């Protein structure tokens, strides 16, 4: 049995720098939020959001970010191809599943009672 594992690598130094800058900006945003402890909350949140937006922007211009955006767009295209059931079909399938669950519960209960009767009453001779 062979497992095909692919290792994803960052190819260029520019992409590595962009990803490193994104990480630094996220850490800077968190640090700035706590360092501005004496300031108004709106200012702390504004600095946090601006630095996080800068980090996201830096990430999305890197190769990995562009691939993530392409993956999201492809996922949306695939979801649009799905043939969704009508409300009537969804209701019918829900009813089928409910009926199956009830029948399976009855089957398992009958199996349990039967095996209990065979084991305890017939084989061991214990009466309940």
TrEMBL record:
Keywords: Cell membrane, Membrane, Protein transport, Translocation, Transmembrane, Transmembrane helix, Transport
Main location: membrane
Lineage: superkingdom: Bacteria
Subcellular location: Membrane
Keyword Transcription regulation: no
This protein's record includes keyword Transmembrane: yes
Coiled coil: none
Transmembrane regions listed in the UniProt entry: 19-36, 42-61, 95-120
Entries under Pfam families matching the protein: SecE (PF00584)
Subunit annotation: Component of the Sec protein translocase complex. Heterotrimer consisting of SecY, SecE and SecG subunits. The heterotrimers can form oligomers, although 1 heterotrimer is thought to be able to translocate proteins. Interacts with the ribosome. Interacts with SecDF, and other proteins may be involved. Interacts with SecA.
Function, as annotated: Essential subunit of the Sec protein translocation channel SecYEG. Clamps together the 2 halves of SecY. May contact the channel plug during translocation.
HAMAP family: SecE
Family per similarity comment: Belongs to the SecE/SEC61-gamma family.
Listed name of the protein: Protein translocase subunit SecE
């Amino acid at each position: 049995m062979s497992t095909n594992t692919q290792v994803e690598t960052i190819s260029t130094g520019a992409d590595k720098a962009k990803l490193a800058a994104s990480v630094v900006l996220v850490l800077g945003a968190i640090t700035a939020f706590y360092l501005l402890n004496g300031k108004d909350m709106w200012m702390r949140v504004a600095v946090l959001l601006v630095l996080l937006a800068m980090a996201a922007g830096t990430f999305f211009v890197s190769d990995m970010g562009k691939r993530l955006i392409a993956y999201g767009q492809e996922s949306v295209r695939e979801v649009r191809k799905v043939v969704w059931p009508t409300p009537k079909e969804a209701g019918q399938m829900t009813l089928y599943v409910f009926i199956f669950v009830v029948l399976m519960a009855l089957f398992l209960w009958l199996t349990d009672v039967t095996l209990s009767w065979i084991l305890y009453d017939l084989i061991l001779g214990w009466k309940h």
